[in-house]
Predict the structure.
Amino acid sequence: IMRIQITSTDGIVINSTKEWGELAPPMNPELHWQDYHSTKELAKSVFDNKTLAPKISSVLERFNIPVPENIKGIPEKATNLLWGRSGDRKYDLFLFDADSNIIIGIEAKADEPFDKPIYYKRDRAKKNADGGENMSKRLDGIINYLYNDNPPENKENLMYQLLSATVGVVLEAEKRNAKYACVMFLVFNSDKLSPKKKKKNEDDWQNFCRTMKIDKNGGIVNIKGINCLITKEEIELI
């Protein structure tokens, strides 16, 4: 099974869930660093339950992508999006192998939404000093990059995180000359999740999949010459 080595953004090796929380905490640890919340469950899936490596391995095998023996992971890794001045985006966990064959961006979920729809981000930004110009620049850049200047008619209803996370891994793969990129939306499923919120996320996911012309169980799309695997997976919590 693939071995995952976790380090902080400063290169400090992380050896436990506790150290992850101390050295690479999420933006709002009081809210997100809790049992049954996605960020902490992601850390536990590496160190305590040891479910992440088998999950990633099985997904790569399913799509005939070579599974690296060793892979490095950085929680809260920032990726620069090229458009606008809205800052970097962060993955819950960013993984890459030494040979630059593959990079993987993981977005962990419980039943939180995939951020907001594009139209909402655009409308809310109109209240900014620039009237929303900067945000529109970012949104249009992401959409045109992802859909090769041929966006779908329903682009304004797509959820921002699904688009930005996918674009981010492709940009990183380009930068690193990686053969494959993978964006994995990883749901930690438990009886504590809201069925209504899970259903909304699944509908948003399938809507996105249709625009990318992939199956709801995931698929590989060639974006800017990079083979990008886009998938949503679940890990059951006991």
User: Anything to note?
Assistant: The longest helix spans residues 195-212. The mean pLDDT is 93. The two ends are 22 Å apart (CA to CA).
